[in-house]
Specification:
This protein is mainly alpha-helical. The protein folds into two domains: about 1-70, Winged helix-like DNA-binding domain superfamily/Winged helix DNA-binding domain (Arc Repressor Mutant, subunit A, Orthogonal Bundle), CATH 1.10.10.10; about 75-110. About 85% of the residues lie in helices and about 0% in strands. Helix 2 (about 20-30) packs across helix 4 (about 50-70) and helix 5 (about 70-90) packs antiparallel against helix 6. The protein is elongated. Belongs to the UPF0122 family. It holds the Pfam family UPF0122.
Length: about 110
């Protein structure tokens, strides 16, 4: 569940502007403020099922955007490369490590 919540929050950070105001509000209340569907329904004046459907559609919109644009995947790949680069630079750098560090920088700049 935590991985799912983290992923949806990351998708929201990248693509949240593609959602309606109501979808953004419900996603924030559910995934960031940890409110239940019933609590959100009470606050929003819609049914619990309505909130569930709204959140489900919003997540589907975020997932579709990621399928097309892959910004989250690219971000995660870059973060992994940067961690590797930090590890290389933190140690003793020989010619092999220098070449690897340069290759990482080149990939990140592309």
């Amino acid at each position: 569940m935590l991985e799912d919540t983290t992923r949806i929050n990351m998708l929201y950070d990248f693509y949240g502007n593609l959602l309606t105001d109501k979808q953004r509000e419900c996603l924030e209340l559910y995934y960031q403020d940890d409110l239940s569907l019933a609590e959100i329904a009470d606050n929003s004046g819609i049914s619990r099922q309505g909130v569930h459907d709204l959140i489900k559609r919003a997540v589907k919109t975020l997932e579709k955007a990621e399928e097309k644009l892959a910004l989250v995947k690219r971000f995660m790949d870059q973060e992994k490369e940067l961690r590797r680069l930090r590890g290389i630079l933190a140690g003793d750098i020989g010619p092999g490590e220098r070449r690897e560090a340069l290759a990482i920088v080149e990939r990140l700049l592309d």
